[in-house]
C-alpha cells in the first residue's frame, strides 16, 4: 500500500519535473506548465520564474489550465496586478482551461480573483514582443548557466519529498562558473551549504554557510559534489535537500592541441553529467513518505 503510494508520487513528481524541464519554442504556452494555474506552493515567485523561461510573441496563445469553480483568471491593468485588485478586469474567464490570444505587443497582467489567491501568488505578468524581431539566436556553445533550483517550485519543503530536487538535478550539467538561484519566502526558508555527512544525516547543527535572504545566488567555483539543505527544523528530513556534481570548465578544443588531454580528468569523464544525487543512506524512508503524504494533503487542502 505504502509502496504503491510512494511509487505513484514518484511517477507524478518525475512527470511534472521532466515536463517542466523541456522548454520547447512554440506558440501555445501552458501557464506554469504541468503545475497549471493555481496558488503556487512557492509563492508569487513561481509564475515570474515560469515567465522568464518563455518568449511571448504576438499571435501566441496562453492557456490557463485550471479546474472550473476552483480557480479563475482575470486580465487586469498593472495597477490591478500590483494591488491584487480585480474590481474592473479587462476580461475575466471562469471556465478552465481558458485561452488568451496575445494579439498586441506589450505587457499583460493576469491574476486569480478568488479569495486570497492573488496575494498568495496566483499572478502572472508577461511581456509580448513583435515576431518581426525574428527567432531568438541559438544559445552559444556553453556560457555559464544560471539555474533556478526547483524551477517553478522554488526552494521549499517539497510536497512530494526529496525526489523533487534529485529529479530536478538529474538531467542537468553543472560546470564551474554556473550559478544556482534559490527562491524562497524570507523568514520561512534558508539555504545551508553543508557537508556530505550533514546532507546524509540531516544534522545541520554545523553548516558551512547559511543564506537567509531570497533570492540567494551561489556561484559554483569548485568541482565535485556540493550539498545544500536548510537549517529549519525537519525541513531537511522532509526533502529540502539538494546534491549536485560540479564538473570542470571544458577548455575549447583547438584543432592542433587535440592530442593533449585536459589536465583534470573530471571534466572529461563521460559519467560527469550523469545522475548527481545519491540517495541518502541514513534517512528512514517510511518517515519521509509519511511526511510527504502529510504535506501533500496539506498542500492539496491549501490549494483548493
Ligand atoms: C490540464 O490539467 C489536466 C489535469 O492536471 C491535465 O490532464 C491536462 O493535460 C492539462 N492540459 C494542458 C493543456 O496542459
Ligand atoms: C480597485 O480598483 C477600482 C477601479 O478599478 C477602484 O475604484 C477601487 O477603489 C480599487 N480598490 C482598492 C481597494 O484599491
Ligand atoms: C485553447 O488553445 C489550445 C491550443 O491551441 C487548443 O487546443 C484549444 O482548443 C483552445 N481552447 C479554446 C476553448 O479555444
Ligand atoms: C550533529 O553534529 C554535531 C557536530 O557536527 C555533533 O556535535 C552533534 O552531536 C550531532 N547531532 C546528532 C544528533 O548527531
Ligand atoms: C528578502 O530580504 C532581502 C533583504 O532584506 C530583500 O532584499 C529581498 O527583496 C527579500 N526577498 C523577498 C522575496 O522578499
Report what the structure shows.
The chain is of the alpha/beta class. Among the domains are: 31-138, Cupredoxins -  blue copper proteins (Immunoglobulin-like, Sandwich), CATH 2.60.40.420; 146-247, Sandwich (Immunoglobulin-like), CATH 2.60.40. The chain has six helices and 16 strands. The protein has helices at 2-21, 45-52, 78-83, 163-170, 196-201, 285-303, and strands at 28-30, 56-57, 61-64, 73-76, 91-93, 98-101, 106-111, 123-129, 146-148, 174-175, 179-182, 191-194, 209-211, 216-219, 224-229, 242-247. The strands form four sheets. A five-stranded mixed beta sheet has the order 2-8-7-4-5. Strands 10-16-15-12-13 form a five-stranded mixed beta sheet. The longest helix has 20 residues, at 2-21. The protein is globular, with a radius of gyration of 21 Å. The two termini are 26 Å apart. The structure holds 2-acetamido-2-deoxy-beta-D-glucopyranose (5 copies). One 2-acetamido-2-deoxy-beta-D-glucopyranose binds next to loops. Residues 253-283 are annotated as: Disordered. Residues 1-25 form the signal peptide.
In short:
The protein is α/β, with parallel strands linked by helices and 304 residues long. It is built from 6 helices and 16 strands.
Amino acid at each position: 500500500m505504502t509502496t504503491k503510494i510512494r511509487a505513484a508520487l514518484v511517477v507524478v513528481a518525475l512527470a511534472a519535473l521532466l515536463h517542466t524541464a523541456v522548454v520547447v519554442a512554440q506558440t501555445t504556452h501552458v501557464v506554469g506548465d504541468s503545475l497549471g494555474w493555481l496558488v503556487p506552493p512557492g509563492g508569487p515567485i513561481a509564475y515570474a520564474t515560469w515567465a522568464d523561461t518563455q518568449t511571448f510573441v504576438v499571435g501566441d496563445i496562453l492557456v490557463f489550465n485550471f479546474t472550473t469553480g476552483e480557480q479563475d483568471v482575470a486580465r487586469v491593468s498593472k495597477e490591478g496586478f500590483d494591488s491584487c485588485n480585480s474590481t474592473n478586469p479587462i476580461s475575466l474567464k471562469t471556465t478552465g482551461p481558458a485561452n488568451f490570444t496575445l494579439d498586441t505587443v506589450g505587457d499583460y497582467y493576469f491574476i486569480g480573483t478568488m479569495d486570497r489567491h492573488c496575494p498568495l501568488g496566483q499572478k502572472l505578468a508577461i511581456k509580448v514582443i513583435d515576431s518581426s524581431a525574428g527567432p531568438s539566436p541559438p544559445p552559444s556553445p556553453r556560457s555559464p548557466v544560471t539555474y533556478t533550483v526547483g524551477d517553478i517550485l522554488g526552494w521549499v519543503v517539497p510536497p512530494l519529498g526529496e525526489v523533487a530536487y534529485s529529479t530536478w538535478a538529474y538531467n542537468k550539467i553543472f560546470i564551474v562558473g554556473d550559478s544556482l538561484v534559490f527562491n524562497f519566502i524570507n523568514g520561512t526558508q534558508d539555504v545551508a551549504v553543508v557537508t556530505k555527512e550533514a546532507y546524509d544525516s540531516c544534522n545541520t547543527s554545523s553548516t558551512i554557510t547559511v543564506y537567509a535572504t531570497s533570492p540567494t545566488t551561489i556561484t559554483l567555483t569548485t568541482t565535485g559534489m556540493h550539498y545544500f539543505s536548510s537549517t529549519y527544523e525537519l525541513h531537511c528530513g522532509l526533502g529540502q535537500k539538494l546534491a549536485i556534481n560540479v564538473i570542470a570548465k571544458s577548455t575549447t578544443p583547438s584543432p592542433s592541441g587535440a592530442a593533449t588531454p585536459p589536465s583534470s580528468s573530471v571534466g572529461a569523464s563521460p559519467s560527469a553529467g550523469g545522475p548527481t544525487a545519491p540517495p541518502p543512506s541514513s534517512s528512514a524512508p517510511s518517515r519521509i513518505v509519511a511526511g510527504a503524504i502529510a504535506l501533500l494533503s496539506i498542500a492539496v487542502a491549501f490549494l483548493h
